[in-house]
Amino acid sequence: MLKDLPYARQWIEEEDVRAVVDILRSPWLTQGPAVERFEAALAEWCGGKWAVAVSSGTAALHLACVALGLGPGQRLVTSALSFVASANCALYCGASPDLTDVDPATGNMTADTLERALPGRSPAVVVPVHFGGRPVDMEAIARVARGAAIVEDACHAMGAEYLSARGWSRVGACEHSAATVFSFHPVKPMTTGEGGAILTQDEALAERLRSLRSHGIVRDAVKQAEVGGWFYEMIRLGYNYRMTDMQAALGIIQLRRLGEGISRRRRLAILYGQQLNGLESVVLPPPEDNVRSAWHLYPIRIRSRTASRRTVYEHLRKQGIFVQVHYIPIHLQPYYQERLGFRRGGFPRAEAFYEEELSLPLFATMTDEDVLRVSEAVREILA
Fold first, then answer.
1. CA 199: distance to chain centroid?
2. Which of 3, 49, 188, 318 is catalytic?
3. Nearest to 300 by CA among 244, 227, 374, 235
4. Are 159 and 262 in contact (CB under 8 A)?
5. Does 7 sit behind a cis peptide bond, omega within 30 degrees of 0 on the bond before it?
6. The domain 258-382 belongs to what CATH superfamily?
7. Fold of 11-255
8. DSSP secondary structure string for all residues of 216-256
9. Tell me: the pLDDT tens digits for 111-165?
10. Does the annotation mark 188 as catalytic?
11. What pTM does this model have?
């Protein structure tokens, strides 16, 4: 049992270390054959056709929007309850970000909240956020998106599943979206240090993404045969958003253990529910209906007459239980208020969720005893 419990933590074994060391001893350190192997394994694991590995989840969001043609005069709609990257990707493209309110139980965008955010002109891109790892109802979102390109922000949801006409599918299969983006930051269900990826079923989109992550450059075999093997062309304005082979080697090993890690997270989430059930001042995550969360977060909400959320937060942290809060709604950030005109009260459900939310520690290497310790501490302060 760990003395100090972070809200999330990477799972690193000796095989991860060996995989990275092997790359350090190889001819390739930056983008090379390990990236291609990681992309192939990632696409197969998720049930998608193409995976494009990049330097972060934020880079993945940005590149997806650029590749889909988002630009000035257009609008992107995402959830108010998310990290700022979900909306900033619109600003990077010169487009206008807009927001939706959320389901008060799950913190997710719904078809209803999206529809209410779509008066007048339709958005060019919709970015549903799978908050905490629980999948959004993407089929319902697709029905009301008015032809907008849909980019799933699955930075919390690597390993999550949903029930479809084909049975259980994994987030990343892109059944109802143009692309799905993942983050592999150390707090996520699997890590490459920093890193991210874009999954898609569209080969042409994947080719644009590969070019965009590397300065907009392409190397055409026919032209190289004519001119010389050194020949390349910059055909669009791109970026340096490449993943390294060191990161990809780590990702390959992490992906092999992901199923085990997700299963462990799900067992711990069940245990939390059992330990905290019946505590009147705690609202637990709702039952899963046709979805299986990746449980990146275990978000509870504090509704106590005697102890505020901040009191609980500080009490737990003093005991070495480093809970966190997710998220300050995007429209409450000074930049979004001062530059873009958003105001408090615009998305009341997101604000209410934030005012109560507390993320308890949850990661694959936690023990049952860790969960019991956290649950006992929560009960102690709220009793």
1. 13
2. 188
3. 374
4. yes
5. no
6. Aspartate Aminotransferase, domain 1 (3.90.1150.10)
7. Aspartate Aminotransferase; domain 2 (3.40.640)
8. TEE--HHHHHHH-TT--EE-S---B-PPPHHHHHHHHHHHH
9. 999 999 987 778 999 999 999 999 999 999 999 998 999 999 999 999 999 998 7
10. yes
11. 0.96
